[in-house]
Design a protein that fits this description.
2 domains; 8 strands; 9 helices; Rossmann fold; binds NADP nicotinamide-adenine-dinucleotide phosphate
Length: 277
């Protein structure tokens, strides 16, 4: 069994397959599958993420329609833009880059995205469908993690998965997805007591905290599967990975593990949305 859950490799392989599916779509639909990306304001990190998503579209032959709105945009203006994209049949998926400026009702804007175009898995309806085990586009980071586990045949059934973090885009959907795959799931967060004791019991650990190297390597038991969703400028994740490789079942490197799977899942789900439209 492979130890390194190589997201870079899986993403590259998937892109190769997607190129063919995009070619087929172009001839059958008569238009190029397009992901609309909405960037509100001037946050440089968000601008970089949107650019990376556009580049990934290009690599598989898809279009990206970049919508850039000023920092002063109101909820109503953003909603109107989303409604316009919802009704454009040549737009297969819509990505609203998070976070939006504070005057905007972000939840209302996410939920305005047509469920059939919610390729980033951000709507309440999409989350509900996913949690109920119905067809849905999953939130891209946890869905990318599930794809990685599936690719490497990592068993989840009956395993104790401990997810550290409960954000709407990561920890919470991650826990639901693992539950749907018959893991026994513990969700930890900032009010959790005795976090170390929970992690010590984990067969599968998912770090989604947002604090560099917060989860210590000596909290992780031998033969655990270690998934690190974190990524920090110092090129480390949320889990201290030193000494883990020799004694774990498998782990995601940082960088090159979870990160590449997130954008890849967005692109995959946009192609699926176009195929279903
Ligand atoms: P977030 O919204 O800030 O959520 C962090 C979660 O961690 C919260 O649920 C919080 O608990 C919990 N937490 C904070 N301090 C804690 C503590 N001391 N003990 C236990 N739990 C604690 O972050 P996020 O958006 O989910 O992102 C998490 C990490 O994933 C970040 O490193 C981010 O960079 C990374 N990420 C990566 C990708 C990717 O594409 N690779 C995408 C998204 C995020 P409360 O709910 O109680 O506050």
């Amino acid at each position: 069994m492979e130890k390194i859950l190589d997201g870079k490799k899986v993403a590259a392989e998937t892109e190769d397959l997607l190129k063919n599916r995009v070619e087929t779509l172009k001839s059958t639909k008569g238009y190029t599958p397009t992901l609309a990306t909405i960037l509100v304001g001037n946050d440089p990190a968000s601008a970089t993420y949107v650019k990376m998503k556009g580049n990934a579209c290009e690599r598989v032959g898809m279009n990206s329609l970049k919508v850039e709105l000023p920092e002063s945009t109101t909820t109503e203006e953003l909603l109107n833009k989303i409604f316009e994209l919802n009704s454009n049949p040549e737009i297969s998926g819509i990505l609203l880059q998070h976070p939006v400026p504070s005057q905007i009702n972000e939840r209302a804007c996410f939920d305005a995205i047509d469920i059939n175009k919610d390729v980033d898995g951000v709507t309440c309806l999409g989350f509900g469908n996913m949690a109920m085990g119905e067809e849905a586009y999953g939130s891209c980071t946890p869905q990318g993690i599930i794809r990685l586990l599936d690719y490497y045949d990592i068993e989840t059934e009956g395993k104790h998965a401990v997810v550290i973090g409960r954000s709407p885009i990561l920890g919470k959907p991650m826990a639901m997805m693992l539950l749907n795959k018959n893991a026994t799931v513990t969700i930890c967060h900032s009010r959790t007591k005795d976090l170390k004791d929970h992690v010590l019991n984990a067969d599968i650990v998912v770090g989604a905290v947002g604090i560099p190297r917060f989860i210590k390597s000596d909290w992780i038991k031998d033969d655990a599967v270690v998934i690190d969703a974190g990524y920090h400028p110092e090129k480390c994740g949320d889990i201290e990975l030193e000494g883990i490789a020799d004694r774990c079942q498998a782990f995601t490197p940082v960088p090159g593990g979870v990160g590449p799977m997130t954008i890849n899942t967005l692109i995959l789900q946009t192609v699926e949305a176009c195929e279903r439209s």
